[in-house]
Amino acid sequence: MVDSLSAWDLHSNVNSVAQNLAIRWAQALLPSIPKLRQFGGETDPVINFTQFASMASADLLVNTLQHVKHNLEKQHGTWKMSWGELNRFQRISNSVIFDDQKPSLPVAFTSSAWGQLPSYTSRAFPSTKKWYGVNGNSFVCAVEFGKRIKAFSLLAGGQSGDPQSPHFFDQSVNYANGVFKPVLFYKSDVLQHVSKKYRP
Known about the structure:
By secondary structure, the chain is α+β, with helices and mostly antiparallel strands.
């Protein structure tokens, strides 16, 4: 496990075993990380994490990592589990009902608590072994202003809230892979992509 973590390039990747170890290890350590206060206010989490990493005892770090290993082996049969095997994106309906037996997509993103944007916070539920996204950046947009506006966006799942709609989950693969789509800002762009017209 230490070799895997040491060799990690610190990039989000659905195939990364080290990312899965690191995130589970960090979450297990979180209760032990004190929230420091300076100048009358709470310090930035980065300061807290950095100071904790420099001062934490080897026993605490190793014992917590061993605990993570034990939990992974108990839940999944091995600690050599990639982040994408655990971290999933599933949209069954507008109610929060997640099911390991139903289709889902691997997601490389993680919570903003660990410096990730877009943020994707996931967790297990009483009936699941996998973790499913529960909050984060559901919409991300990048805009370039100039003589002609250029914009690209990402939307979690799809535009429709109706599970029977073809637009309920049609943007999911792009979202899970961080692939932006062009925003149709000008009328001429919209007209090129019309699927249906009506006159109110």
